[in-house]
Each structure stands twice: as C-alpha cells, then as structure tokens.
Amino acid sequence: MKTLLITYHSITGGSKAMAQAVAEGAGTEPNTRTLLLHASDTSAEHVLNAHGYVFIAPETLGSMAGLMKDFFDRTYYAALDQINGRPYTVLVCAGSDGQGAVKQIQRIATGWRLTEMAPPHIVCTHAQTPEQILASKTINQADLQRCHELGAAFASGLAMGLF
C-alpha cells in the first residue's frame, strides 16, 4: 500500500482547512494510506516512508511560514538522494499572491529531486490589513472542493502506480 504524506502548517486556519480537504479526498482511495501531519510533527522517517507528498503552508511576509521551513530544515538532508522521483504538489494560503512560498517549496523539492504531480494551488484570501491578516480564515467551498479533488486524484494515481 502506498502512503501519501500531507504536511501542513497553519497560523489562521486556512492552510489547515485546505490540508483537511486534501486528506478527505485522498481518504476516498482505499488502496492508499493517507498521513496528515502538522509540520512540527513530521519527521524525516515520515518523509522517507511516504510515496508522495502534499506540502501546504501559509505565506507570511512573502515567504513560506517559519514552521514549514523548520520542517524542511529538519528533514532535508536525511531524505536527500533517497526520495528521488517521488511525486509532490504544493498548496499555499496567501493574502496577496503566494508566489514566494511556492517558489521556496519548489526549490526544496527540486533539491530532493521530486516530480511535480500537479501545478501549485494558491488560495488567495486578499487579507491586507493587520486585522485581516491575523483573523481566522474561512476557505470558500470551491477552493476546498479543488483541494478535495486534488487529494483524491493524487491518492488514486499512487494506488494505480501512475507516479
């Protein structure tokens, strides 16, 4: 059985809601094990034992959030040259454009020699004031549905051996 690792960090709830939707979608595939873990709980062993990855993070100050970076800092060298070719995708919850966080995660995935399974998905909340940025986020149903579908497609592809 293949394992899909969904690693996320969330500050205001947006990325967590996206991660849960991906996990729910992936859970529809009975032949793939779905592992949903907060970035601070994800170890190199989890990375090494997974067959595919979904990385979900908020963008803060134009970059991936610090605890997501911490996850990569803690696991990068332990997994280097041991997970080459495995599929991944990136989801970002952002107030503006999310491109900074996406590029950082893609750069790390390139170093790990992962294969992009699907283009990055950015959910833009348009939060621009300090109050909006710090407020709890509600992700709209259409974006949550896309996250769900992505999870289902990724898990099915793993189960079928497509990647």
Q: How are the elements arranged and paired?
A:
Layout: E1 2-8, H1 14-26, E2 32-38, H2 44-49, E3 52-60, E4 63-64, H3 66-79, E5 87-94, H4 99-111, E6 115-116, E7 121-124, H5 130-134, H6 141-160
Parallel strand pairs: 1-2, 1-3, 3-5, 5-6, 5-7
Antiparallel strand pairs: 3-4
Helix pairs in contact: 1-6
Give a written overview of the molecule:
- 44% of the residues lie in helices and 24% in strands.
- With 163 residues, the protein is of the alpha/beta class.
- Strands 1, 2, 3, 4, 5, 6 and 7 form a seven-stranded mixed sheet that branches.
- Strand 5, helix 4 (99-111) and strand 6 form a beta-alpha-beta unit.
- The model has no long low-confidence stretch (mean pLDDT 97).
Summarize the structure.
By secondary structure, the chain is an alpha/beta fold.
